[in-house]
C-alpha cells in the first residue's frame, strides 16, 4: 500500500501579514488547522513543519518553504511513507479536484501555488543537496528541476499574505 504523509508548512516570517498568520482565525478556525483539515481526508498522517510542536525544517530554519519540504520528505522516508503531499498554512481553500489531480500523478505541483505538491519521500537527500548547491530557493524551480508535472488548478487558489487577503476570502 502507498502510504501518504501530509505536511503543512507553517514557518516563515509572516512579515506582510504583520503577525503569525498560521494562527490567524478565519470563520472561527486557525488557518493552520484549516490547512491540516484539507489534507486529512487524503493522507495516512499529517505533520506540521517549521514551528513549535511540529517537525523542524532541514537543514536549518530560515530557508523558506523548501526547508519545510525537505524536513517533510525526510520525516516521511524514515517512517515508511512513499510520498508526501504538502500545503502551506496560508491556503485555507483548495478544491478537492486539485488534490485529485496531484494524487493521480507522480511528482506534481500546482502551477498557481507550487508549495501545493505531491513528492516522492525518497527525494529528501536530493533536496538537501539542492538546497546546498542549487541556484534558487524557489519551490517551483526545484519542482521543475526534478521533472515534477505542473498541474493547472483552473481556479485561483486563495493564498493569504496580508490581513486584507483574509478579509477578502
Ligand atoms: N516550514 C516552513 N514554512 C515556511 C517557511 N517560509 C514560509 N513558509 C510557509 O510557506 C508559506 C508561504 O510563505 P510566504 O508567505 O511566502 O512567506 P512568509 O515568510 O510566511 O511571509 P512573508 O514574510 O510575508 O513573505 C506560508 O504558509 C509559510 O508558513 C520556512 O522557512 N519554513
Automatic annotation (TrEMBL):
The Gene Ontology biological process terms listed for this entry are: Mo-molybdopterin cofactor biosynthetic process
Q: Which positions bind Mg(2+)?
A: 90
Gene Ontology MF: a single term: GTP binding
Q: What is its EC number?
A: 2.7.7.77
Localization: Cytoplasm
Q: Which SUPFAM superfamilies match?
A: Nucleotide-diphospho-sugar transferases
CC cofactor: Mg(2+)
One GO CC term of this entry?
Answer: cytoplasm
Q: Where is the MobA-like NTP transferase domain?
A: 6-131
The parts of the chain that form a coiled coil are: none
Per UniProt, the keywords (alphabetical) are: Cytoplasm, GTP-binding, Magnesium, Metal-binding, Molybdenum cofactor biosynthesis, Nucleotide-binding, Nucleotidyltransferase, Transferase
Q: Which reaction does it catalyse?
A: Mo-molybdopterin + GTP + H(+) = Mo-molybdopterin guanine dinucleotide + diphosphate
TM ranges are: none
What top-level branch of life does the organism fall under? Bacteria
- Residues at which GTP binds: 9-11, 21, 90
Q: What does this protein do?
A: Transfers a GMP moiety from GTP to Mo-molybdopterin (Mo-MPT) cofactor (Moco or molybdenum cofactor) to form Mo-molybdopterin guanine dinucleotide (Mo-MGD) cofactor.
In terms of HAMAP family, this protein maps to: MobA (MF_00316)
Family the entry assigns? Belongs to the MobA family.
What's the domain remark here? The N-terminal domain determines nucleotide recognition and specific binding, while the C-terminal domain determines the specific binding to the target protein.
Quaternary data: Monomer.
Q: What is this protein called?
A: Molybdenum cofactor guanylyltransferase
The protein's organism comes out as: Sphingomonas gellani
Gene assigned in the entry? mobA
Amino acid at each position: 500500500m502507498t502510504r501518504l504523509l501530509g505536511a503543512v508548512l507553517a514557518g516563515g516570517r509572516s512579515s506582510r501579514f504583520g503577525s503569525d498568520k498560521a494562527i490567524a482565525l478565519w470563520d472561527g478556525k486557525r488557518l493552520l488547522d484549516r490547512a491540516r483539515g484539507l489534507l486529512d481526508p487524503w493522507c495516512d498522517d499529517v505533520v506540521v513543519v517549521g514551528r513549535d510542536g511540529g517537525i523542524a525544517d532541514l537543514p536549518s530554519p530560515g530557508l523558506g518553504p523548501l526547508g519545510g519540504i525537505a524536513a517533510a520528505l525526510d520525516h516521511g522516508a524514515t517512517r515508511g511513507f512513499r510520498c508526501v503531499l504538502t500545503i502551506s498554512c496560508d491556503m485555507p481553500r483548495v478544491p478537492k479536484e486539485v488534490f485529485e489531480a496531484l494524487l493521480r500523478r507522480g511528482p506534481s505541483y500546482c502551477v498557481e501555488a507550487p508549495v501545493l505538491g505531491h513528492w516522492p519521500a525518497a527525494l529528501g537527500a536530493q533536496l538537501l543537496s539542492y538546497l546546498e548547491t542549487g541556484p534558487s530557493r524557489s519551490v517551483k524551480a526545484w519542482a521543475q528541476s526534478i521533472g515534477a508535472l505542473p498541474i493547472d488548478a483552473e481556479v485561483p487558489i486563495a493564498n493569504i499574505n496580508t490581513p486584507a487577503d483574509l478579509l477578502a476570502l
